[in-house]
UniProtKB/TrEMBL annotation:
Transmembrane segments: 20-40
Domain of life: Eukaryota
InterPro entries recorded: Alkaline_phosphatase_core_sf (IPR017850), DUF229 (IPR004245)
Name of the gene encoding the protein in the UniProt record: LOC108569125
Name assigned to this protein: Uncharacterized protein LOC108569125 isoform X1
Keyword annotations from UniProtKB, A to Z: Membrane, Transmembrane, Transmembrane helix
Source organism of this protein record: Nicrophorus vespilloides (Boreal carrion beetle)
Amino acid sequence: MKRGDTTDDRLEMQTWRPQSVLWLLFIVAACSLLFVCNILEIRTYTIKTAYFLQSSPRVQEELSMKGFFIRTPGCTIPEMRAMDDSIKKYIFMEKSVLCNNGTPPLIDSNRTSIYLLESSLEYYNLNDTEQLTCCYQEFHRVAPGQSKDDRVDFGKECVPFEVWTDIEHEFIRVKCFHNRSMIYKDFFSFVPARNASNVGKEKLNVLIVGIDAVSRLNLHRQMPETVRFMKELKSYEMMGYNKVGDNTFPNLIPALTGMSEDELQRTCWNASTHFDECPFVWKDFKDSGRLTGFGEDSAWMGLFYYTKKGFRRQPTDYFWDHFDMTAEKEIGNMHRLNVDQCVGARLVHKVFLDYISKFAETMRVNRLPYFGFFWGASLTHDFLNKPKLGDRDYVDFLKMLNASGTLDDTVLVLMSDHGIRWGEIRSTYQGRMEERLPFLYLRFPESFAKRNPLAINNLRTNVRRLTTPYDLHETLLDLVDPKKLRDDSIQERNVSNQTTRRAYSLFDKITTNRSCESAGISAHWCTCQTSEKVDVGDQVVQEAANHTVNEINELLVGYADCVYLELEEVLDATVQINTDVIMQGTQNQDYTITFRTRPSAAVFEATVRRIFLPTNEYHFNVTGTVSRINLYGKQSLCITDFHLKLYCYCKQYISNNNNNINPIID
C-alpha cells in the first residue's frame, strides 16, 4: 500500500483485487484460446489446400465434377436430379399385379424338385391330396432347320407323382386332375448339372443380369433398395454409359459381339438367316472351358426372335427362351401392352429371377465355371414406373447371391440397354437424356480386385468417362482370361491406349479426349452436347423437319401398303453445340427436332445436321436413326421389317379411321 492511502481506500483495494486477478486470468485464457484456434484454423486450411493440390488427378477430378456426370475435354454430360421438377408429374406408384385372379399355385419347386402345396388345396375346392392326381411331362427345344426357332416337343409320357418328386429334366409341364377333369396346369424349369471342360482349373465366373428400358436415374427413382445394395456390394456405377442405337437389339449386339448392327449384317446375319455364325462372347467363354447360359423373359419379343429367326443350334449350354415362350403361351395372364405379367399364379419376372438363382446355385454347388447372360423385360419394358414393383424382388435375389457365396468368385454385371423410349416424359429434356443413358454396374470379387489393382484403379477412373456397349464387350473379353489384367500387362496397354478409338476395355484408362464420334455414338444418341431452344417456326427448323419426313418416305418406297407421310407439326426444336463438329473447325449445326406426321399421328425425334457449303448454301443430313417416341401398336402390321415398323402406317387404317396407338415393340 502506498503511503497516504486511507482506510476506505485500503478496503476498496482489498475488495477489488481478487476480481481484478480473475479478469486478468480470463483475458489471458481467452487470448490463448484465440491464438490456438487461429493456429488450428490455419493448419486446417493448409491441410485442405494441400489435400487438393497434392491429391491424385482422380481425386482432383472428382472434386471438380460438381454439377456434371461427365466433365472431360471430349465430353460434358450435365448432372440431373432423379426427381427433377421437370419430370415429377410423370412419377407415380403403379398398381400391384394380381396373378391368376388371386388363386395361389398348387405346385411349387426348389432347385431339384417339385412338391404339392397343401395350403392351396382349399382354393381348388379340395379337402385332401387323395382327391388329386398330378403328373409331369418333360419338354425341350426342337432344332428349327431353316424355319423360325420357336418350336418345342413334349414327351409322350406324363409321369405321375403324389406330394413330392425329384426332377432330372430342364423343363416340365405339370397337370393336376380332379374327377378326371384338369383343374391345374403349371410349368417349371431346372438346371441339371452338366460337365464342363477344364473344371479343375480356377476360373472367374461372369453373371450378367439385364433389366430392359431403365435409365440410370430411373433406377435410382424406382429401385432405391437395389441401388443401395449394389453400393453395399462396392459395385462400380458407370456414370457416362451412353447407348449407341435406338432399341434393345442395336445396344446389346455391340456388348455381345463388339459389332454394330450394320457390321453384324455385313458379316454373319441378315433378317432371313439365323444367328449361329455370329461371334457372340459366350463362345469365347465356352472355348475357355466354362458352361454358358442365356435367357430372356417375354422371349417372344426377345433379342433374337422379334421378326427374326433365332438359332439353328442351341447357342448356349443352358437356354431358357423356349421355356418362357411355351409357359407364357399356355398359362400367361394379366397381359398389358406387350407382355404377360404372370405365368399362372406367379409374376413372370420372379419366375425368371428364380431360374437365374437355380442356375447360379447349381454352378456353385457343383463347382462349375460359367458365363450367364439373362435379360428381363416383362417388368420394365413398357412402363416408366413399373420397375418399383420389382425393387424388393431384385434386392432379395442379389442378397441371395451374396449370402450363398456365389459372388465370392463371380463378376456381377447389372445393366440396362436404354431408358424408357416413349411416353410423356420423353417430351422433356431430361427424358430425352435419360433415354440415352441406361444404367451399368460392375461388381468384382475381393480376390480379383487384390490381384489386379491397376485394372480396378483404371475402372474407377472410367466411372467418370464416356462409355458404351462396345467397351463392355472389350471388358468381357478381358474376363475370359483375367491373367491379362495383371499390372504389368495393364501398364503396357495404358501406354498404347493414348489415342482415341471406338472401344476400350473398362480396365484400360480411357482418354479424356474421347468424344461421341470417336466412341461410335451418332450425334442423335450423343449426350455430350449442350443445346439451345429454337423457335419451332424457324425456317431452318421447318426445312429440316420436312427433309426428315422425306427421308422416312424414301425408306418406305417399295412398301405399297404404307401411306405417304406428311409433316403436320413441329413440336420442339433445339440446336446443339456438337463438340465433335466444333473440334473439326466447321460451322455445321445439329438440330434435334420433335415433330408429328399425318395421317399416322406418329411423333418422331431426329437429329438433323445442317451442313454448310463453301457457297454459303447448306443441305441436311439425318444422323443416326429417326426415333419413334409414341406408341405405334398395330399401325404397321402390314409389313414385317422390324426397322420400318416404326414408320409405316398401313393404308387399311385410313378407311377405318383407326390410328390404334397401342404398344411399341423393341
